TrEMBL record:
SUPFAM superfamilies: L domain-like (SSF52058)
Phylogenetic lineage: Eukaryota, Metazoa, Chordata, Craniata, Vertebrata
Gene of this entry: Lrrc18
Protein name: LRC18 protein
Entry keyword annotation includes Methyltransferase: no
Record bears the keyword Repeat: yes
One Pfam family here: LRR_14
Signal peptide annotation: none
Annotated region described as Disordered, given as residue ranges: 223-256
SMART domains: LRR_TYP
Record domain Disease resistance R13L4/SHOC-2-like LRR: where: 29-128
Protein's organism: Cnemophilus loriae
Amino acid sequence: MPKGKGPQGKRITLKMAKNSIRVAFNGRRRLDLSKMGIATFPKCILELADVEELDLSRNMLRKIPNTIEKFQNLMWLDLHSNQLDELPAAIGTLQNLTFLNLCNNKLTTKGLPEELTLLKNLRTLNLGLNCLETIPTTLGTLRELIELGLFDNALTIIPKSVKNLPKLERLNVKRNPLPEFAEEDEPIDTIKRIESLYLVEKKDLCGPCLQMCQGERDELHKLEDVTPGPSDKPSFPSLVTPNSTARDNQEEWRIK
């Protein structure tokens, strides 16, 4: 088996980590270790704990240690697409965090520590694609949240404290068994949707309208399996003898 490979995933050295530091568009230093095949949190990156952004997304991490508290300058933390089922309590010490992406992991409600509510500066929190059955009402204390992703979980209710967050602009709860967001197929009442109804005779109809009515009549006869007999005066089920109002408003009716 090649050196550095195996059940523990790829081994990250301090040199590799230093070479993975990039300057983001906002001027922050980002330690980008995404897509590296990492299965264990690299201890060596504690030497680089002064970075402002840390990307460990798309790896095989099962646990984030409490030593994450060393990264006190972190404003941006991306852990999406790993195999995390819980977060450490020390996550709450990262008081400068404004962005936290935990999407596409195995997080359960029990795996969300109460200390998560200490991230008072958090503006974006993504918990989508996890195994959450409930959302702690205490998340309502994150009053700076602008964007909250809860999609693709097993949620049946969203706490009012979360829905009523003062600065929340985007709340994604798609593909959850939420009764309040269930789509109901209501029957369309065509009568209620009619704004105007004018009754005219055959001679008052324009060519296209007459053809349409005749077609509808023929379809109706087919459905009833009735062969129409000869008649000098065709019968249009939806039309009756006109009155003066229908004649006076004929052009208006045609426009509509």
